[in-house]
Amino acid sequence: MRVVQAIWLRHAALLGIDAVVAIVCLWLAMLLRFEGRISEPYRAALPVLMVALAASRLVANIGLRLHRWSFPFSGLPDAARLGLAGLLGTGLFMSAVYFLQLMGPPRSVVVLELLLSSLLMATVRFSPRLATLYLADWARARRISTTRTIILGAGAAGELLLRDLQRSRSHDYKVVGFVDDDPAKRGTIVGGRPVLGATVNLPELAAQRDITRVLIAIPRLPAQRIREILSTCASSKLHFKILPVSFVYLQERSAASMLQDLSPEDLLPRAAVSFAESTAASMASGRRVLVTGAAGSIGSEICRQLLRSGAAAVTMVDINENGLYMLRRRFEREFPTAAIAAEVADIRDAGRMRDLVGRCKPEDVFHAAAHKQVPLMEAAPCEAVKNNVLGTINVATAADREGAERFVLISTDKAVRPSSVMGASKRVAEMAVRAFARRSSTRFCAVRFGNVLGSAGSVVPIFQDQIAAGGPVTVTDPEVRRYFMTVAEAVGLVLEAVYVGYGELCVLNMGEPIRIADLARNMITMVGLVPDAGVRIEFTGLRPGEKLFEELLAEDEERTTHVADKIMAVRSPAPPHDTLDRISELVDAAMAEDGRRVLIHLGEMIPSYRRGGVPEGGRATSESVARET
């Protein structure tokens, strides 16, 4: 009730001010017209004219809802509404004079009063916002932590971002202007700030105006353009933030609150792949699922998406008890009504896998557990086979025995023409899954990924730690390139592969690979440091098992069908009929800790496998790697 009363009091006060403004402006117009001495006939008629004018203005202002004015958010449409109310009020006033047969004021007085009333009513309504903006700017200017900032993009999103920043005192950005590549905008003023030049002028402008921050206000800016901007500003010590969404979405939320640091995901050389939840994830609703490697980056995201999609029960399996415990606690908070189980288990233990799958009775099994660090697996080939091959067979056998409907193996692009033990072990795991698919009623599928941005042990968090420590940032080779994808894309591919059923082997078309040296330089530039000056990049040489270039498809897999959402369903020859027998011999060698025999078996099973991406005695070259692959 008190809130309603306060609102009505504010409306009444604003209308009262409008009435006083009309009366005062009519009197001032009369004084100006008659040079300070109003003639007697008009002086006698003035009180009645004042009442008629005030009533006319109040009717017009109420009709156009000027009494409901929003002082903090007034803008151009409100100014147009105010001007229209002024004209309407004058029209009503002249109609009242005519119909009531009053002594009308001179026409010059009518025009003067309209101009004066409109000016004063606009002042009353817009001055609080202007005062707020100037006070906020003044307060920010007095702070020691104020950051001189430029906005990249003088379009709708840039103007909206500036307005949000001007209204708020909860940030330290002092916007000095815009840059925009549209020649028509150069030299113009947007929201009181000048468009100072084009993107190529950023280094010069940063030096001249002491700018340390760039806010990118061009939502969904192509990754290629972002890389060009970072390259242009590599020596300027500029820190970047970006608006990640469209202007339509910005209209529903504060643009300033959505600013985020430019991230490696923004550098992906393609538009992000989006998988519709309605066609894949929604099909998981009501399903019983089991996820191995659940405490890892991919496994935990699979669990999250399945729980979000309404899975009836999710059993999370991992040997990392601490990670699994924390994951279960987090999911129990996020999904309090879901059936979540956490099981500490080693996938190399066949009995444990049989018992676990037998108790859980999953309809769908996601096998994400694996050893993935290439240099460590080069030194421990038996461990790679035990975990990546034997572990896969154990989980697949249990799923087959208990009649699971679907089984999916998470594989890697390093399985294509492998030069590492890790890649070779994942290729054998793919062969095992395809062999199971030939004889089982369970739908077996392998999904091949590139590098997952931000996953544990991957290059991005390593670079971030090295940059935070002041360098050096270590890159194996200036020409090494890798395919990248986000965790969300990886999980989307898993869900599509499993629930839509594209085939036994699915691969995501990830566009062009990224040069790791360029990624390192861009990540250094993002945080306002200078590559090779502020933070040194050090080339260490390819490690054992690494290649300069990764591939998505082997020669016998290139007859593929593009299905949807950039997923490729791979068609390749069926594995030999004795595949599982040969895998058994490989596993026996690993269990006997016979590393030499493990390598021999891997070479026999995978003719394209050439151990070691680095030639003996020196650094790899693109020619040597090409010969080996």
Largest sheet, spatial ordering of strands: 10-9-8-11-12-13-18-22-21
Termini separation = 78 Å
Count every helix, treating DSSP H or I runs of 4 or more residues as helices.
20
Rounded to the nearest angstrom, the radius of gyration is: 35 Å
Q: Which consecutive residue ranges, at least 5 long each, have pLDDT under 50?
A: 246-253, 613-629
- How many beta-strand runs? 22
What sort of overall outline do the alpha carbons produce when their principal axes are compared? elongated
Sheet of most strands: 9 strands, mixed
Just give the CATH class of the largest domain. Alpha Beta
CATH superfamily of the largest domain: NAD(P)-binding Rossmann-like Domain
The secondary structure category is: alpha/beta
CATH topology of the largest domain: Rossmann fold
Strand content: 5-15%
- The name of the CATH architecture of the largest domain is 3-Layer(aba) Sandwich
**Into which percent range does the helicity of residues fall?**
40-55%
Structural domain count: 3
- Average pLDDT for all residues: 82
Descriptive account of the structure:
The protein has 629 residues and is α/β, with parallel strands linked by helices. It contains 20 helices and 22 strands. The chain has a 9-stranded mixed sheet with strand order 10-9-8-11-12-13-18-22-21, with helices on both faces. Strands 3-4-2-1-5-6-7 form a 7-stranded mixed sheet, sandwiched between helices. Helix 9 crosses helix 16 and helix 18 packs antiparallel against helix 19 (595-605). The termini are far apart.
